[in-house]
Amino acid sequence: MKRLAPELRKDGVELDLISLIRTILAACKDISFRVGQADLSGVLGSTLNENIQGETQKKLDILSNQLLKDMLLESGFVRAIASEEEDYIVEGEHGGRFLVAFDPLDGSSNIDVNSLTGTIFSILPVPEDKLDGTPITEQDFLQPGRNQVAAGYVMYGPSTILALTTGKGVDFYTLDKTHGSFLKTRDNIAIPEETKEFAINSSNQHKWDIPMQRYIRDILDGKAGIRGKNFNMRWIACMVGDVHRILCRGGIFTYPAHTDNPEKPNKLRLLYEANPMGMLVEQAGGLVSTGEQNILDLQPTELHERVPVILGSKQEVKICLDYHNQ
Ligand SMILES: O=P(O)(O)OC[C@H]1O[C@](O)(COP(=O)(O)O)[C@@H](O)[C@@H]1O
Ligand SMILES: [Mg+2]
Ligand SMILES: [Mg+2]
Question: Where does the Fructose-1-6-bisphosphatase class I N-terminal domain lie (predicted)?
Fold first, then answer.
């Protein structure tokens, strides 16, 4: 039985960080239970609220956010949190050396149809000059993804699975629901470099820029076309589910910019979607880019900033980037 804490200690992960990860997992265990019981306990459906990004909040978005926020801020390991469902950062009163940014429930549109959802988290260090207790500001969260000390997601599917990196590769842990512990089930995840599988919401095709139009058109031409092979397509409408499949068997996932809305061209959020997924994918040997730049090198400019995302199997992402650089 490879339990989480001893495995992380073996990897040399510091004790406070292990305790913080365990706190996130305690909240996720609760979320997993509530997602599974949602239909029975009447928490399916939307609220009357919108978050700062103009999205209608589901009851489970709010519940998951509250669970994570309360447990993290009371843990003593987290100075402040940022969340998709919080307009501004929230600072705790119990000290700690870490900042956590999270998407409490990813794939919200899947909630009401009993399909995949997940929680995504990114752990950053408190900047040196704030370790003395000087109040944390939004600026302190605006660190490039390269600064993440750990990142991961918990996927609520037929099994509840954690994908975790602390910068030494990616491991999967599965929640053993009989004992309530996360047990290591796969280690050193490696994304195959080549693939015949792609994930994009093709209903938006008319909104993509020319390089993405060309890249997907050539894929769809299959064996007879310039790519010389037939591809398969998947779209889970939950980034956690799509990235999990890519970690398991390779593929390319992209959510490109939409040219029809210059005010809001991108969908995925940098701090709590693109960066943590970027760290996981890179740690598993894949590539992650905006089309112009490695996502992990971006200097964030605002808390809920959105970016274009291309990630997955190294060779396929490179081919996609070639279309952008022609
Ligand atoms: O509506 P679409 O285009 O299918 O978008 C799906 C994408 O939106 C997201 O659901 C956004 O996440 P939230 O549910 O946390 O807002 C991603 O997980 C997913 O990749
Ligand atoms: Mg999300
Ligand atoms: Mg969400």
Answer: 16-186
The residue whose CA is least distant from atom 3 of ligand 1 is: 201
**pLDDT (tens digit, 9 = 90+) per residue, 114-124?**
999 999 999 99
pLDDT of residue 138: 98
DSSP state of 193: S
**Nearest Cα residue to atom 1 of ligand 1:** 237
pLDDT (tens digit, 9 = 90+) per residue, 232-263? 999 999 999 999 999 999 999 999 999 999 99
Q: Which long-range contacts (CB under 8 A, 24 or more apart) does 40-44 make?
A: 44/111, 44/112
One of 3.40.50.300, 1.20.1300.10, 3.30.540.10, 3.40.630.30 is the CATH number of 4-186, namely 3.30.540.10
Residue 52 pLDDT exceeds 90:
no
Q: Is the CB of 239 under 6 A from ligand 1?
A: yes
**Best residue among 59, 201, 254, 306 to mutate for probing ligand 1, ranked by most atoms within 8 Å of CB:** 201
Ligand 1 site, residue 252, Cβ cutoff 6 A: no
What residues contact residue 273 under an 8 Å CB cut-off, 6+ apart? Answer: 103, 106, 120, 239, 309
Which H/E stretch holds residue 245? helix 239-249
83 neighbors 65 (Cβ within 8 angstroms): yes
The answer to whether the complex's ipTM is over 0.95 is yes
What's the whole-number mean pLDDT along residues 76-104?
A: 96
256 lines ligand 1 (CB under 6 A): no
How far is ligand 3, taken at its centre, from the CA of residue 108, in Å?
Answer: 6
Q: Which residue in 47, 53, 100 sits closest to 268, CA to CA?
A: 53
